[in-house]
Amino acid sequence: MAKSNFEYVRDFEHETRCLPNTWIVVRIDGKGFHRFADLHDFVKPNDTRGLTLMARAAADVMFEFTDVIISFGHSDEFSFVFRKNTAVFNRRAEKLSSLVTSLFSSSYVFHWNDHFPDTKLRYPPAFDSRIVLYPTDENMKDYLSWRQADVHVNNLYNLSFWSLVLKGGLKPCEAELKLRGTLASDKNELLFQEFGINYNQEPPMFRKGTTLLRKSVDFLGKGKRTIVMPYYCDIIKKDFWDTHPELLKQGKAGRVEFHEGMEFFEIKKCS
Ligand code: DGT
Ligand code: MG
Ligand code: MG
């Protein structure tokens, strides 16, 4: 086929391939979610509806990208870890990052009404994204540990701050001043002494963030299905990786037994 005179402009296109044999992490984060959460009356400091909606959108990303072996999120962010040997889109960074982000954003809007039936979505939310490559298993595990440690630090601070403001009647600047320079133990003590809150009894979803894993489950003889299961557990300790050995082996989805009340996500399409 004859080429047009304009064909040369293709030479200006540039693509970045993620290095082979490295864990690919795509992290998305809500743009201006401080304002978004306020405008949509999110419960402070943690809104279960918003956090579950984030997990729902992340599960859709995992259904589309089956090479994502684990994802982890809290607040307005989610990290997706692609297996080291993934060949999806020839490991093209822009393709991966942009598709994960746009699918996440559209799924967030698609499922909004299920989670906020009484709240009109006031404007289309947006998410940014970045890609980071980790060469060793240890680096990748440390990355996830870093994100989970962040949940702990932020959640303890936010719970203390909002308890002082909403229950203690302090102005935000007074609460900030009171918490300045305090250690984790001081905040635990303050929560318990002033508000009767035992931090360790706060919902695990708030304290530990949400970890999503792909699992294969036999629905009581009705056949095996692949689901995405949320876990609200410690992912820093070795125990987590021992319990889910398929992750580091880059193997197939691990099996779980079905039980009543089990929490999981399945692909949802409009009928
Ligand atoms: P950015 O990411 O630089 O565009 O700015 P933000 O405003 O998204 O800041 P970021 O990502 O550092 O912090 C997340 C914000 O989202 C934080 O201000 C609190 C808000 N947020 C996230 N989840 C919840 C929630 O469950 N409840 C409430 N009230 N706010 C939340
Ligand atoms: Mg943000
Ligand atoms: Mg954030």
From TrEMBL:
GO terms for biological process: tRNA modification. Its EC number is 2.7.7.79. Mg(2+) 1 binds at D29, G30, D76. GTP binds at D29, G30, K31, G32, F33, H34, S75, D76. It catalyses: a 5'-end ribonucleotide-tRNA(His) + GTP + ATP + H2O = a 5'-end phospho-guanosine-ribonucleotide-tRNA(His) + AMP + 2 diphosphate + H(+). The keyword tRNA processing applies. Residues 6-135 form the tRNAHis guanylyltransferase catalytic domain. It holds the Pfam family Thg1C. Binds 2 magnesium ions per subunit. Belongs to the tRNA(His) guanylyltransferase family. Adds a GMP to the 5'-end of tRNA(His) after transcription and RNase P cleavage. This step is essential for proper recognition of the tRNA and for the fidelity of protein synthesis. Also functions as a guanyl-nucleotide exchange factor/GEF for the MFN1 and MFN2 mitofusins thereby regulating mitochondrial fusion. By regulating both mitochondrial dynamics and bioenergetic function, it contributes to cell survival following oxidative stress. This is tRNA(His) guanylyltransferase.
